[in-house]
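Practice problem: Solute carrier family 35 member C2
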Amino acid sequence: MACPVQFLCRAVRTVGLVLVYYVFSIGITFYNKWLMKGFHYPLFMTLVHLTIIFCLSTLTRSAMQCWTGKPRVMLNWTDYLTKVAPVAIATALDIGLSNWSFLFITISLYTMTKSSAVLFILFFSLVFKLEHPNPYLIVVVLLIASGLFMFTFKSTQFNLKGFIMVLLASFIGGIRWTLTQVLMQKAELGLQNPIDTMYHLQPLMFMGLFPLFLFNEGLSLSTSEKLFRVNELSPLLYTLVMLSIGGSLAFGLGFSEFLLVSKTSSLTLSIAGIFKEACTLLLAAGLMGDRMSGLNLMGFAVCVSGISLHVGLKTYYSKSKIHSLRQLPVKNSQDLEVPLLCHNEDEGEETAADDDKEQEILL
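Answer key — structure tokens:
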């Protein structure tokens, strides 16, 4: 059993990581919405963010290599194009469409619609056999879908174009996080560290989103006085600084998500995500003037109930899996020589929990 001091330190660490995640997640949502009011080029903004994330990831990898003295993983072209590219393209489209939708919809509608990503994650988890079907999943799907319908029904600030964009982003997000889990579970690739994952994803994400940017914003941006036809240096510097702040927030968000999962669990991230959405809706109503009816609020409550049920089910099945691991014999199989079975019980519980965290990224 862990002593009270260890338990307190772990609790403080968890709260601290959750707060850091909240700062970056809620911060970038409101920041992008604010920036979109005067800068109507969301895809270009996303490309700038990807460039900044790649640069910061490169600097961080170099610092880690100097600190540890060990070279960082570098994938060969075959693995890079066949295994990383699908994740990168799905991630780029998810982020790009999400940012694009801010031109049309409110933060509250964005937050609520984005919650439907759980449905698509469940669907693709079943397709890729990362999740086993059970009757409770039907209840989860019905609750989230019903909540989303109630929230958008007769909404006074509803925009169909923006809603479709976020819904499509959620669908692609289901593919994104499912493929991300598969990618990070491939031990031979060595991408368990979030910095290495972010470093390898950004170039392909940039190339995947660039054609869409050229088609939708290329001509308009090339004639814009905010960038290419700027007459004074100060407005250009202001725009670049604003975009750089968003890129730094995007890097912090990606790193804080992976850090929270690696230091606590995917369950902690899921629970934190539920309260984060509630905080986002409250802040949207207070700061941005988003209007929500009683039916909309009831829909949000129903949706949160579905997500909470999903989190509870994941907790139950994760504990069952760890319990099954403890019952396996180890005498005649080297494959079962995991740390759980080679140390004392307390150390084993922590190792099994850590293994489970890495195996269930955001699911």
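Discussion: The chain has one domain: 41-216+236-322. Students who identified this feature from the tokens alone can consider the problem solved.
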